[in-house]
Amino acid sequence: MRGADVTQESLFTVAKLADFVPASHPLRSIRALADEALGRMSGLFSTLYADTVRASIAPEKLMRAQLLQLFYSIRSERMLMEQLHYNLLFRWFVGVAIDEPVWDHSVFSKNRDRLNGSAVAAEFLAEVVRLADTRGLMSDEHFSVDGTLLQAWASHKSFRPKDAGPPDSPSGGPRNAQPDFKGQRRRNDTHASTSDPDSRLYRKGNTGAQLSYQAHVLMEHRSGLVRAACVTPASGHGERDAALAMLGSLGGRRRRTLAADKGYDTADFVASYRAAGVTPHVAQNTTHRRSAIDGRTTRHAGYAISLRTRAWIETHFGWLKAAAGLRQVKQRGRAKVEALFQLGMAASNLVRLRKLITAGAA
Question: DSSP E strands: which ranges in 194-318?
Answer without folding.
Answer: 200-202, 210-220, 226-233, 256-260, 278-282
